[in-house]
Amino acid sequence: QIFQPLHTLRSAEKELLPGFHQFEWQPALKNVSSSWDVGIIDGLSGWTASVDDVPADTISRRFRYDVALVSALKDLEEDIMEGLRERGLDDSTCTSGFTVVVKESCDGMGDVSEKHGSGPAVPEKAVRFSFTIMSISVKAEDEEDAVTIFQEQKPNSELSCRPLCLMFVDESDHETLTGILGPVVAERKSMLESRLILSVGGLLRSFRFFFRGTGYDEKMVREMEGLEASGSIYVCTLCDSTRAEASHNMVLHSITRSHSENLERYEIWRTNPFSESAEELRDRVKGVSAKAFMETQPTLD
């Protein structure tokens, strides 16, 4: 090893660091930095304007999404190999066709203000965005159906939930949340169109990811989908019924909202193409008054 060139020693050294894993995406991710030895980054990366003059470097910290997912998969390496063995699958033939389902969660953490006030002035509320690997399945080359090789036994436990981004922001501050989680959404979107190539059990394997935004409570869903807050006459985050309608009819509700529809309604709200009064316009968009920025699936967790 002694006579290796310096850069080879450097990369050998890096691989000994805890939490370091080499991986690649095919095709390469768009909107994501190309350095793969990243640790914790500024949550506002790629977003320069300061929010209410809060020093930008104090407001948020996060992992790059793909790096966090790689780390989570490497933590589950033994479970994945055991799952393959239990299902009687030959691990040397299972190198592609892995599917990973990820549940995303986001919630406010309440008041975290510093009681003795010597640090920088930051908002006194915090929000945490995290994810859980719910299941991993594999479709063997000659098989019709995918076989589940890992299922999270305690999907709502603190232990299986991995923090991705911590931010000093009130969960009802739509603009700041959009600014911080915007890059996270961009990374997630580009991962959907690519495959992760990662060494698991000594062989390179390829993984596809599916994201389920089911870990948001109602307040967060309203914030992310641009709906009016809880005092609105439009009570439901899934359909368009008003309080009055819901009180007369407790049974017949259908899930009518979707992320793309909320975006379209926001455009109508913003442009007012029919030159309506504020009241008529509000009735037309059914309580969508901010730009929807993160898709939340209307499903039961």
Automatic annotation (TrEMBL):
It comes from the Eukaryota. GO terms for biological process: adaptive immune response; B cell differentiation; chromatin organization; T cell differentiation in thymus; V(D)J recombination. Residues 234-296 form the V(D)J recombination-activating protein 1 ZnC2 domain. Pfam families: RAG1_DNA-bd (PF26024), RAG1_pre-RNase_H (PF26025), RAG1_RNase_H (PF26100), RAG1_ZnC2 (PF26101). Residues 24-96 form the V(D)J recombination-activating protein 1 pre-RNase H domain. Residues 100-232 form the V(D)J recombination-activating protein 1 RNase H domain. This is RAG-1. The gene is RAG1.
